[in-house]
């Protein structure tokens, strides 16, 4: 069975002992870990539709609680 590793004697650029000459290796790849565009400014306040939705939800829960309590009280 043949080995998949190349023969070191036939690989170009290798020095005796298996090292490579300076300049024979490709340069390091550039880092791309930064942002390419600036982040949009965030708002520091809660949106009006969110406030309206919370108020509507609280009112809806209150109506259902009042209806449930009224139903229970009127049955006795």
Automatic annotation (TrEMBL):
Domain of life: Bacteria
Transmembrane portions of the chain: 48-74
Transmembrane found in the keyword field: yes
Keyword Transmembrane: yes
InterPro entries in the cross-refs: DUF6480
Keyword field: Membrane, Transmembrane, Transmembrane helix
One Pfam family, short name: DUF6480
Segments of this protein annotated with the region Disordered: 1-41
Protein's name according to its UniProt entry: DUF6480 family protein
Species per Swiss-Prot/TrEMBL record: Nocardia jiangsuensis
């Amino acid at each position: 069975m043949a080995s998949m590793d190349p023969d070191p004697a036939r690989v170009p650029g290798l020095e005796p002992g298996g090292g490579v000459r300076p300049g024979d290796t490709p340069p390091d790849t550039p880092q791309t870990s930064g942002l390419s565009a600036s982040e949009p400014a965030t708002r520091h306040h809660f949106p009006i539709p969110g406030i309206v939705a919370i108020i509507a939800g609280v009112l809806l829960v209150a109506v259902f609680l009042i209806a449930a309590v009224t139903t229970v009280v009127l049955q006795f």
